Amino acid sequence: MNENEVLIPASQMDPSAINARTKRGRIQMLFLLLACAAPVLASYFAYYVYKPEGGKTNYGTLVQPVQETNPAWFALPLQGKWTLVAARPAGDCTVQNTKCLEALFLMRQLRVAMGRESNRVQLLWVNTDGKQVDPEIALAYDHETAGFTVEDLPSNPELKAQFMQWLNHEGAGQQIQLIDPSGAKMMYFPVTNSPKEFGSIKKDLEKLLRINYKGEKLQ
C-alpha cells in the first residue's frame, strides 16, 4: 500500500483493489499459520502416517483411540513422563521363573538403552497378587538404579476392575504397555528376548522421545 492509498477513504477506493488486497492478506495469514504448525504436523505425520515401502513404521501396536488412565489407580503419577507398565504376580517372579522376569528385564534394558534420555522414562510393575517381592528380584528391579516402581492392584474393587479392563484391552494384558506423558496408553509391545525385536522396540521408543516433549515434566 503506497502513501496515496493511505489518504484515500476506503469507500472511494476501487472495490477490486480492496478484494485483491483482502485475498492477499488471507493467503499471507494462512502461510503464517502453516509455518507455526509445521513442526507439530511433521512429527505426527512422520510417526503415524508415513509408511515407507508400503509397511508400517512402528513395531509396537498402536492403541486407537488411546486409552486414558485413572490417576486414582496408583500412587505413581502417570502423567508427565513416558511410562512402561507390566502386570505380573510377585509370587511368580523369582530367579527360577525367567518367563515372569522377561518383561521386567526388557523394560529395564529399554530404559537403559535411552541413555541420556532415560530420565524421561519411568517403569511401573503392577504386582497382581499382592505378595512380597523376592528380595533378590527387588534388588535387581529397584527404583534408584533400575527406575522401577512396584505397586499392588487398587484395593477398591471398582478401581481394580477399571484397571484390569484397561490392562486387558485388545487382549494385551501380558504385553508391555506404554503410557504417554498425557496419561494415556497409546501403544503396547510384545515381551521378547530377541535382540532384533528389542532393537525394533527401542527404535519406537527413541522416535517417540525425539518427536514429542509435549506434557513432559523434564528433570
Structural commentary:
By secondary structure, the protein is α/β, with parallel strands linked by helices. Helices cover 41% and strands 17% of the residues. It contains six helices and six strands. Strands 1-6-5-2-3-4 form a six-stranded mixed beta sheet, covered by helices on one side. A hairpin with a 4-residue loop joins strand 5 and strand 6. The model is unreliable at 1-12, 39-47 and 49-55 (pLDDT under 50). Keywords: Membrane, Transmembrane, Transmembrane helix. This is Transmembrane protein. The chain crosses the membrane at residues 30-50.
Based on the model shown, name its key terms:
single chain; 219 residues; alpha/beta; six-stranded mixed sheet; 6 helices; 6 strands; 17% strand; elongated; disordered N terminus
Topology diagram in text:
Layout: H1 3-7, H2 15-49, E1 61-68, E2 82-88, H3 98-113, E3 121-127, H4 135-140, E4 148-152, H5 157-167, E5 176-179, E6 184-189, H6 195-211
Parallel strand pairs: 2-3, 3-4
Antiparallel strand pairs: 1-6, 2-5, 5-6
N- to C-terminal distance: 50 Å
Strand residue content: 15-25%
SSE string, helix = H, strand = E?
Answer: HHEEHEHEHEEH
Mean pLDDT score: 82
Secondary structure: number of strands: 6
Spatial extent as radius of gyration: 25 Å
The 3D shape can be described as elongated
Class of secondary structure makeup: alpha/beta
Helicity, in percent?
40-55%
Please outline the major beta sheet: 6 strands, mixed
Number of helices: 6
